[in-house]
């Protein structure tokens, strides 16, 4: 399976699809707030990788993850990554998971 780098157009299309679903879905705002968080996380991962001038191929070498795992982490909809995958990806970029309280609305 060849690598597929997300283009800005694909990112915009995915976000637009999410917004369309949100407007027409009866599941409520909590469901879509979680989806928004997932989308932002994926986009932040891609941003950090690109900020470090790394390709997905570079990430395979640095993280020890497979191409499929990296592609799924950055793009796939509806599939939650394994925690170890996320940790390995972040570690390859020199980051770690940190927690902070949610902001009050």
Element order: H for helix, E for strand: HHHHH
* Average pLDDT rating: 82
The profile of the biggest β sheet is:
none
Number of strands: 0
Q: Count the helices. How many?
A: 5
Distance between the termini: 43 Å
Class derived from helix and strand content: mainly alpha
Q: Are there runs of 5+ residues with pLDDT below 50, and where? A: none
Short structural summary:
The model has no long low-confidence stretch (mean pLDDT 82). The protein contains five helices and no strands. It has 105 residues and is mainly α.
Task: Describe this entry's structure for a reader.
The chain contains 5 helices and no strands. The protein has helices at residues 8-24, 29-51, 56-63, 67-74, 83-93. The chain is globular. The longest helix is centred in the middle third of the chain and has 23 residues, at 29-51. Helix 1 (8-24) runs antiparallel to helix 2. The chain has 105 residues and is mainly alpha-helical. The N and C termini lie far apart (43 Å).
Task: Lay out the secondary structure.
Layout: H1 8-24, H2 29-51, H3 56-63, H4 67-74, H5 83-93
Name some characteristics of this structure.
64% helix; globular; mainly alpha; 105 residues; single chain
């Amino acid at each position: 399976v060849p690598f597929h780098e997300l283009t800005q157009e694909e990112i915009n299309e995915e976000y637009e699809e999410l917004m369309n679903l949100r407007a027409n879905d009866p599941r409520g705002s909590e469901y879509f707030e979680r989806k928004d968080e997932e989308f932002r996380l994926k986009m932040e991962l891609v941003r950090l990788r690109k900020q470090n001038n790394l390709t997905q191929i570079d990430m395979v070498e640095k993280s020890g993850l497979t191409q499929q795992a990296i592609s799924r982490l950055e793009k796939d909809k509806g599939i939650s990554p394994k925690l170890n995958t996320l940790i390995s990806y972040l570690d390859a970029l020199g980051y770690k998971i940190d927690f902070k309280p949610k902001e009050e609305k």
